[in-house]
Design brief:
The protein is about 60% helix and about 10% strand. The chain is an alpha/beta fold. It folds into two domains: about 20-210 and about 245-330, ABC transporter type 1, transmembrane domain (ABC transporter transmembrane region fold, Up-down Bundle), CATH 1.20.1560.10; about 365-460 and about 530-625, P-loop containing nucleotide triphosphate hydrolases (Rossmann fold, 3-Layer(aba) Sandwich), CATH 3.40.50.300. The strands form three sheets. The protein has a six-stranded mixed beta sheet, with helices on both faces. A hairpin with a 2-residue loop joins strand 4 (about 430-435) and strand 5 (about 440). It is elongated and about 120 Å long. The two termini are about 35 Å apart. The chain binds adenosine-5'-triphosphate. Adenosine-5'-triphosphate (ATP) binds near residues 385, 412 and 413. Keywords: ATP-binding, Cell membrane, Membrane, Nucleotide-binding, Transmembrane, Transmembrane helix, Transport. It is found in: Cell membrane. InterPro entries: AAA+_ATPase (IPR003593), ABC1_TM_dom (IPR011527), ABC1_TM_sf (IPR036640), ABC_transporter-like_ATP-bd (IPR003439), ABC_transporter-like_CS (IPR017871), P-loop_NTPase (IPR027417), Type_1_exporter (IPR039421). One of its GO terms (cellular component) is plasma membrane. This is ABC transporter ATP-binding protein.
């Protein structure tokens, strides 16, 4: 067996990391659209240059036509300024056009990759991560990244280039005044570094808290019946309000930091412009500077205000995007289980994709290779179990013969569900091996394994899809005939009286159906592909006595043609089985027919009597449960 992969704790770093390094990891996604992004950046630079040329045109108007009293020159200059303005506006519009579609593609690709990866990650990962955290990473965080690609990424470059070009122009026009304007750069760089660190910590906290909020919201929506049933809505409201209050506090801290940064970014350059204006006016008065040059100088300085001021929020959004990238890659970096070599595929085995029209009675008994389902020395411990806790399963040996139905019984928490989860490899056994018809499942491609093994769990989850789609999930390519047969076996005839029959959409998690109805659909899903191996975890628990008897009768027919392990809590479910295995203390304590175990295992007899604490030998009183298939 492969070693169980320890999924990482959902990380909550403090944000002290390199934002640039985090953002650089996005390169593989940006690569395919780099041409568009570079073109958009070039277009934006041309647009900014058009904007910067306007003050130069003004200088020409003031020093030329205005000073020389030439009205036609003023009109010409005015027309030139108008043209430059129109050019700037249309180029900015073109930038949006160039980036919108490819960036939506990048966001969609990243989301699809995340979803694909989440589907491949082991159940142990999902046990540990809160669903809201995954939800917020695949929605809010990816939207933040798209905004970053569309806006700050381009404008950090373009505005940076504009500022450099603008200062070159200023220094050429009047280097003393230019140096006055450059004076705030040093304190601003120091302040930006100071705020960046604090802001990224706050951004990380806010994004994690919004994930926590999504988790509480999701749990409240899914558990609304319990909340209402126990009158817990006030408690839930308080818990939600407390979390929302914490998030509000963090957002306020972010706003406070951003406000302070912005105040410095706006006021320091304004002070410098004021100083340059006073100095410039004195120079014009002394005749050392032309009025036109001063107008051009100040217009250029004012044109640089937006690129300088925008740096504050561009840095803020970039930090949030870097945090979003970290959160995205925390999930993507979690290794998914290794995909086994597809060449080990069992070619002779019939696929569930093409189920036979009618089940063969005992198709697997005749084959010499078909040795059934075997567990040899299987052990399992949950990755997050305390180090000193004993393993849930240890040295489990069990052989289910081809075509045989084995019931698995044991006290609550004895590990029955855990054991059934090892067969379709929802969890990896930590020791020992499991074979299906002699082939080790650890060496089998998961896809193939899941074609061979079908499962129905105690909690019958249905998806937001039609009844038919939910059932046919169990058999890719299955059609109407398979659907009808599976519904018949599961005694799910009620679907035909639903408004649109098997096309009726069942709500989120099938909430519009009763527990028993959902369980019957989950059972139909398990049997629809006529699987070679069937794992049923207490499949009849939510059925009334009458329906249970009907389902049992139909299920007997299916079980006759498959090798099955059925977790049973009730004698009526045990009756479906050929033999029974008793799970106790993490091991198989006894195997035999129901009749044999009633007489040989006191623990089994007590379990079947529904009285686990009872003393005294198991004998005649339990004989009323006898009468299984053998
Ligand atoms: N995801 C998990 N992480 C850690 N421990 C777990 C996890 N799931 C189950 N356990 C523990 O493993 C043990 C076996 O649980 P399991 O659900 O397999 O028992 P069970 O026999 O199916 O119980 P029941 O009859 O009540 O359904 C229990 O002690 C349980 O607390």
């Amino acid at each position: 067996m492969t070693e169980t992969q320890e999924p990482p704790e959902p990380a909550r770093p403090d944000g002290s990391r390199s934002a640039v390094r985090s953002l650089l990891r996005l390169w593989p996604y940006v690569r395919p659209v780099r041409g568009r992004l570079v073109t958009a950046a070039a277009v934006t630079i041309v647009a900014s240059c058009a904007g910067l040329a306007i003050p130069l045109a003004l200088k020409w108007i003031v020093d030329g036509p205005v000073a020389g009293g030439d009205p036609s020159g003023v009109w010409l200059g005015g027309g030139l300024v108008l043209l430059l303005g129109l050019l700037e506006a249309s180029l900015f519009a073109a930038r949006r056009f160039l980036t919108a579609r490819p960036l939506a593609r990048v966001e969609a690709d990243m989301r699809a990759d995340l979803y694909r990866h989440l589907q491949r990650l082991p159940v142990a990962f999902h046990d540990r991560w809160a669903s809201g955290q995954l939800l917020s990473r695949s929605t809010t965080d990816l939207t933040l990244l798209r905004i970053f690609f569309a806006f700050p990424l381009t404008f950090l470059l373009v505005n940076g280039a504009t500022i450099v070009a603008g200062f070159v122009v200023l220094l050429i026009q009047q280097w003393v005044l230019g140096l006055v304007l450059l004076a705030p750069v040093v304190p601003l760089v120091i302040l930006c570094a100071y705020f960046e660190d604090r802001y990224s910590r706050a951004a990380r906290t806010a994004q994690d808290q919004s994930g926590d909020l999504a988790t509480v919201l999701e749990e409240s929506v899914l558990g609304i019946r319990i909340i209402k049933g126990f009158g817990r809505h006030r408690g839930q409201e308080k818990a939600f309000a407390a979390l929302a209050g914490r998030l509000r506090g963090t957002e306020l801290r972010k706003a406070h930091l951003l406000g302070l940064l912005w105040a410095f970014i706006m006021s320091l350059p304004e002070l410098a412009i004021g100083a340059a204006l006073v100095l410039g006016v004195l120079q014009v008065a002394d005749g050392e500077l032309s009025a036109g040059t001063l107008v051009a100088f100040l217009s250029t300085a004012l044109a640089l205000r937006w690129p300088v001021e925008s740096m504050g929020f561009l840095i803020a959004i970039s930090n949030e995007a870097a945090t979003a990238a970290d959160r995205y890659f925390e999930v993507m970096d979690t290794p998914a289980p290794r995909q086994e070599d597809a060449s080990s595929r069992d070619e002779d085995a019939p696929s569930r994709k093409t189920p036979p029209k009618t089940p063969a009675k005992t198709p697997h008994k005749a084959s010499r290779e078909r040795t059934g389902l075997r567990l040899e020395g299987v052990g399992f411990r949950y990755p997050d179990a305390p180090a000193d806790a004993p393993p849930v399963l240890e040295g489990v040996d069990l052989h289910i013969r081809p075509g045989e139905t084995m019931a698995l019984v044991g006290t609550t928490g004895s590990g029955k569900t855990t054991l059934t989860a090892l067969i379709p490899r929802l969890h990896e056994a930590t020791s020992g091996r499991i074979t299906l018809d002699g082939r080790d499942i650890a060496a089998m491609p998961r896809e193939r394994l899941r074609e061979l093994v079908s499962v129905a769990f105690e909690d019958p989850t249905l998806f937001s899809a039609s009844v038919g789609e939910n059932v046919l999930m169990g058999a890719d390519g299955g059609g109407e005939a398979e659907l009808r047969r599976a519904l018949e076996v599961a005694q799910a005839g009620f679907v035909h009286s639903l408004p649109e029959g098997t096309r009726t959409q069942v709500g989120e998690q099938g909430l519009s159906l009763s527990g028993g109805q959902r369980q019957r659909l989950a059972l139909a899903r398990a049997v629809v592909g006529d699987p070679r191996f069937l794992i049923l975890d207490d499949p009849l628990s939510a059925l009334d006595v009458h329906t249970e008897a009907l389902v049992e009768a139909a299920l007997r027919e299916v079980l006759a043609g498959t090798t099955a392990l059925v977790v049973a809590h009730r004698p009526s479910t045990v009756m479906l089985a050929d033999r029974v295995a008793l799970l106790s203390g993490g091991r198989i304590a006894a195997v035999g027919t129901h009749h044999e175990l009633l007489h040989t295992s006191r623990e089994y007899a007590l379990l079947m009597a529904g009285d686990e604490d009872r003393d005294g030998p198991a004998d005649a009183p339990y004989a009323r449960h006898e009468g299984g298939r053998r």
